[in-house]
Design goal:
Four copies of one chain form a homotetramer.
Chain A: E1 2-7, H1 13-21, E2 26-32, H2 36-45, E3 50-52, H3 55-60, E4 66-69, H4 76-85, E5 89-93, H5 100-113, E6 117-120, H6 127-137, E7 144-154, H7 163-178, E8 185-191, E9 201-207, E10 213-219, E11 221-233, E12 237-241, E13 249-260, E14 268-279, H8 287-300, H9 309-327, E15 333-334
Parallel strand pairs in A: 1-2, 1-4, 2-3, 4-5, 5-6, 7-10
Antiparallel strand pairs in A: 7-11, 8-9, 8-15, 9-10, 11-12, 12-13, 13-14
Helix pairs in contact in A: 1-8, 4-5, 5-9, 7-9
Chain lengths: ~325, ~325, ~325, ~325
């Protein structure tokens, strides 16, 4: 039995508590939050769970083997470091930390102590993204040309982070999971429309070593909610609509092929291929439940985290480069 | 009666002939094309129309008052100049020419001769875009925050121009029509995925003098066809879906407003406003028919072209800056 | 404070317990079920609630003022009668009982004892149906021509009742709420496709005293889930899509009007009117919470139940006539 | 070369002329109409085609081998009979005639003279319906449970026929094409909402010898246009949306199966199967072109008409039974 302490019972914490509590071999022993009312809520729902306004109590408790951190990103580093130093395994909310130095320090600490350090990037645990990964890995899409994601809605404005750190992080972690190659350069633009608030809209282009191009459009000020990704390959193409109930992933047997022009044999002609579409059945299990099961296995069975601390680092490095490019109106930045 | 000669009977020419022929006060007297078979088609449909493989015959004919040019963009300048010099009014297909020097030369020639020179930017003549213009001008959207357009589909690859000159030109001319302010800088990215072919995907961010930001996503390799524009304002927001039959324009009474935080009076709080949506009735008349009527009035009644040669010039200037930025992976370019 | 006992903790019971528990002035004191495991679940969620496998304990408890019945329909009559005879107010799940005699007996008993007897028809408590009621009552739709509902999906087969008693009951109670006039005749058809199971598809036409016609299509064997109602009026028309997140109710300014034919003045011509559509903002509060608040007010403040026992009786009478017609392949049945 | 005369150049006639003229081996030699203006239109489009206001001229012309009749249904019988008696092959617009006696008389005449008599039921010639036929015949849907069609829109009111003869005829001919078994009984309801006009809404249930049930909903007064058919089978289910551009036919691997209940072995349990969906590529060729090609082959190569005069008769018989049932508010009528 792995005993877990959860730091933060705000927006995401309750989901962590609920899922860890229904994961076999796991037990939520502690929940901490700086808000007394949140702790009362925990007590009414889970009478046997210990609560405290002092995070150290959970981190240092002998009744805790692992710590899950669901606090604002600015506090991730300090909390995660303290937990690792106390010998606890750590699951940290996305993004992993505010810069790559923090991420690297945590990775070192976990390595040294042979502790599991995992980042809570949720999408790689969804049935839809796993199905797409299967198709990518199986080569069924052919060469990947582009990944284009739109993730827009009205609100919620965050005070401490902009729309990139809030929304684009999902696409960056999905990209990191799907493709072996990693982005090397970025050009990004964005804007603050509400005085005194962070950027609420951003457009990000990521360049990869080969011809793959990825684009991410995030916006907190859209009248409609959209969660849609197009993936174009030389053989097949995908539309992934995360808001669709029954047809999240559609695979189109469409594309182009080149043939020699019959009139002018020195010229190549583009031909179109328009075949059938199919929408595979998608595992509907809650992503976070897959993640909590996997976190347990990483600790118990020494599995390697799918959303490892290294992927967390790569995502943070990319976010920093995106931000720098956006501040310079699209200036090309290396991701390093 | 205005007699019109039409140069080029390929993709767009037949639409010009059909619409001009059903415009009162206008008569299509000549059609020229370099393809004999196209001319046979003209003859079978319009037995009384004169045809020729020699464009000069139409341009110089005393039986022609105006010339409409529907040929590849590289030939626009030469044909338009010749027509103006022959004293004919000119309607030229979009984009107006291959660079701003050509556009300026044509503008000078038309001014000098007091001839109408109009560009066939079609969207400002659609019921949907006109309705949006009404809302923008009436101030009903409040301050405009962003314009975001997605224009993607599978094909058709053009051999001589890339996806920007083919598709983004529609959004640039729509922007030019809708807003008094004009873009001053651009950052664009794109990619060629088919060997030997021009760029097939591009992402364009336009910066305006104030906080307005415009983004255009064009793609020839999308498995699905999308023609969707989001326009965000401080008061209302619009979704314009050109593929919708009945609800092309939806106006959302949604937005954010700022209020002082009750807990911390030094902090501002973002509030959301979610009201009703309405979709106005849109004039369904064919845009090109509105355009041909307007072209007649520009000649007959000295109306000023809505899609003037100056708007044609601005669009070409922007296309050039976009292209330069794209070649430099998002480098910021002034539009001048 | 009104103390409530809830009989049945299967599919709907948990929703009743949750909503009553968060209704001010109401307290769930007892929950009973014949399944011991269900009661354990209650205890883990609501430690202070009393549970029993014996319904009489709750019904007869001095610590109970009202009973909510969420058991299979065959048991409604016996349980409701017993509760009324014990002097308790009663909320009974839809449909109210298996026939009109049972409904009438319950109505008599409640009247005699001046107790509230209310039926849990949920849709009249949704924001969408309330908005439609407003439009109907305000005369904005004009004369109502038809009400057409499609309510289909895959499953869940009920063993004891057919698709009419399971699904059509929602449309019948919505009709009863929306329109003052009541259906007088019915023609219905249906079919059993799974051997040994009740009818899984049915088509119901209801005739009203005037020209209003209502049609209900229910199906347990549809590959897609649909919850869509068209309402046609002489002035405006509605599409109510209960599965839409943001645009549940769309009001179309469309219709026909008659004019004298100009050619033949003895003939009338049908003209079409196609104006704008608008989608009002809908109150998103959970319907059942509106219902539990209202039930409390019926007891405390002597409000009249919106979904009264008489509406429950009318719906059951209609269901019986529908069933009889369906068994006779569409034979017209009076509803009485 | 087959020479064709076309009677009627109103709504459908121009489509017939255009398609026959582009069918190899066929030539439209005559067009007749009672409206002089329509004939002028023919002349301007097809200068070499002969026109007349007198149908007999075309029917009796030695320059005509076959007659296509696109006039109001009331005139079909007289015109078709005259054409057959003149030794011409006949293609007659749907519905074939106003009653079964007329249909039978035409069938006799054609048989006696060994002439092709074909009905212009268009849907069996569409790529979508042909694909569905393939699936039905291949047994991939399993036993067919139901066919449910919704065909509604605003207008156009016909003066001489009601919504059944205008719209439901499409579904009846599709049913006749798809399934070997034919409906034996019908229950139908409907209503006239516009004074002095025919029924504008109807609901039709068709019973087949086995458990197959078909339902057709047609309406001239709907705010939205819908053309959607659900087909439920024991193995797979289909959604056929004729308004969809890219995904007209979707095949769902969904259904139910029975298994013995583990708790009560005397009871059967319904299990759900939810697998993938796929949407086959559909031949987009114009249906009418397939039909005109086939009509030529029926004459030239003695092929049997897919939409034979017998299918025309069956559809008319069914329409008559539907009408009788509708007039009697759902009374069950035999189709004979």
């Amino acid at each position: 039995m792995i005993n877990i302490g959860i730091i933060g019972y705000g927006y995401w914490g309750p989901n962590l508590v609920r899922n860890f509590n229904s994961t076999s071999g796991v037990n939520v022993t502690w929940v901490t939050d700086i808000d007394q009312d949140k702790l009362k809520l925990v007590k009414s729902r889970y009478p046997s769970t210990l609560v405290s306004m002092n995070t150290d109590e959970a981190i240092e408790s002998s009744n805790v083997d692992a710590i899950a951190i669901a606090t604002p990103v600015s506090s991730h580093f300090e909390l995660a470091l303290k937990a690792l130093q106390a010998g606890k395994h750590v699951l940290v909310e996305k993004p992993m930390a505010v810069n790559s130095q923090e991420c690297e320090r945590l990775i070192d600490e976990a390595d040294k102590r042979k502790l599991t350090l995992m980042v809570d990037h949720t999408f790689p645990y969804t049935g839809a993204v796993r199905k797409i990964k299967e198709l990518v890995d199986g080569g069924q899409l052919g060469e990947i040309y582009y990944f284009d994601s739109v993730r827009v809605n009205l609100g919620l404005f965050q005070h401490d982070i902009n729309v990139i750190w809030d929304l684009a992080v999902h696409d960056l972690s999905t990209l990191d999971f799907l493709f072996d190659q990693k982005p090397v350069e970025v050009s990004a633009t964005g804007m603050r429309h509400i005085s005194g608030q962070p950027e609420n809209v951003a457009y990000i282009t990521l360049f990869f070593p080969n011809n793959l191009i990825a684009h991410i459009h995030v916006n907190w000020l859209s009248p409609v909610k959209v969660r849609k990704t197009l993936i174009g390959g030389s053989k097949k193409m995908i539309v992934y609509d995360d808001l669709s109930i029954d047809e999240k992933v559609k695979i189109y047997d469409k594309g182009v092929s080149m043939s020699r022009d019959e009139v002018n044999i020195y010229k190549m002609k583009v031909d179109y291929r328009i075949g059938e579409m199919h929408s595979p059945s998608i595992d509907g299990k809650e992503a976070l439940k897959n993640l909590t099961n996997h976190f347990r296995n990483c600790i118990d069975k020494k599995e390697n985290p799918i959303t490892s601390s290294l992927s967390g680092l790569r995502v943070v490095k990319t976010l920093k480069a995106v931000e720098k490019s956006m501040e310079n109106k699209g200036r090309l930045e290396k991701i390093k």
